[in-house]
Amino acid sequence: MGPDLGTATAVAQWRVLAEVGQALSRCARPEMGLPDVAGLVVPQAANWCVLYLPGDNEVAATLDVAHVEMGRAEEIRGRLRGRLTRLEGDRRLLAELGVSGGQVTPVRFGSRTRGLLALASEAGDLEGAGDLEFGRALADRIGLELGCTLAYRQTQRAIAAGELAVGIVSHDLGNPLATIQICANALLDPRPQPVAGIRQIAEIIQRSAAWMQQIRRDLLDRVHLDTGGLPLARESTAVSDVMGTVEKMFLPVAGEQGLEFAIECAADLPRIDADPGRLQQALSNLLGNAMKFTPAGGRVVLSARAVADQERGPAIRFAVSDTGPGIPEQDLPHVFDWFWHSQAGERTGTGLGLAIARGVIEAHSAHLMVESAPGGGSTFWFTLPACGTRAEGCHGGIEARG
């Protein structure tokens, strides 16, 4: 339903709706076209128009103003700028404009009110039935175009991510699958294999299958993190237990690669409120990344030490440091991106390890940070509160979700 076609004003309003729709449709980013909206409305369908979007991570902030009197638009914009920080109701906008009449209509898309559209005639009383319907139709048209374009962008990102995931998985699964096939052919060879050879082949198959399982787990974790539902089983956790488990996992890896691997952890550290399995996963991803990029003869250190967090009190700071080549400055903003690989080195792995580590740490209400400089190695670190410093204390093996 739209404006009544029985008057010249209504015809003008229909024309404005069509022009606004065309202007928005021409823009790859609709918010770039929003400044044209007020100019299209004034003076054809109203004497002044204000379109206000506070802005968020999906839509740019917008304060678009048009007025029939030259200079008044900038005056209104200056009056409103910095004073409308939230959508606190229709009449506040009119009050800020210093008028008692007119109409304010919410701009909605994505099941939320994202902005306000204010219109008024010369007398400031654009409140007739047809005028109200025009305001609603105009706000709906703006919201529809914004919502459609955002949905399109999200779909394009999802398609691109899906295509990238398929390409990476097909590549990364290809190597272990080829290895398993070679081993199977060796076992099927009519010439009998010695017992030691059969055992060696079985070990190769086992390692290849374990790598394939790791790819599968990484992809499932990525799905959980995308949907905000990474499962956590938090409990009172001894830091030394986590560090000891990770040490046993990576000492052989460091030895094979000719690296020095050190654990720095005091014996009397307080317990933490964490999911020990997920914490080991995050630390393993960080250590695997550090050892992959540190050349033979280098050093990798996993440390845990007590610190005083300004907001949460006593806490434990975990850090993984290496003496590798460091991360180029242009790469630092991307190290936690899904499927990302540095152009500086050989592409190995799925490119999910650091992103999953960050997701695990964020599920614990913490932040994974990185410090690095070319030629100076890298350090990844995060801080978790000690037991008793959180409002809920430590969990006792209760299922929780980040």
Please provide a brief summary of the model.
This protein is an alpha+beta fold. It is built from ten helices and twelve strands.
Care to describe what's here?
The chain is of the alpha+beta class and 402 residues long. The chain folds into three domains: 8-154, GAF domain (Beta-Lactamase, 2-Layer Sandwich); 162-226, Helix Hairpins (Orthogonal Bundle), CATH 1.10.287; 231-401, 2-Layer Sandwich (Heat Shock Protein 90). Helix content is 46%, strand content 21%. The protein is built from ten helices and twelve strands. It has helices spanning 8-25, 30-33, 35-41, 72-80, 90-97, 129-188, 195-226, 239-256, 276-293, 353-363; strands at residues 48-53, 62-67, 103-109, 112-120, 231-237, 260-265, 272-274, 299-309, 313-322, 369-372, 378-385, 396-401. The protein has a five-stranded mixed beta sheet with strand order 6-8-9-11-10. The protein has a four-stranded antiparallel beta sheet with strand order 2-1-4-3, sandwiched between helices. The chain has a three-stranded antiparallel beta sheet with strand order 7-5-12, with helices on one face. The protein starts with 7 loop residues before the first helix and ends with a strand.
Brief descriptors of the model:
five-stranded mixed β-sheet, 12 strands, 46% helix, 21% strand, Heat Shock Protein 90, Helix Hairpins, alpha+beta, 402 residues, 10 helices
Report the C-alpha radius of gyration, rounded: 30 Å
Number of domains: 3
Mean pLDDT: 76
The CATH architecture term of the largest domain is: 2-Layer Sandwich
Q: Please name the fourth-level CATH homologous superfamily of the largest domain.
A: Histidine kinase-like ATPase, C-terminal domain
Biggest sheet architecture: 5 strands, mixed
| Helical/strand content category | alpha+beta
Q: How many individual helices? A: 10
Number of strands: 12
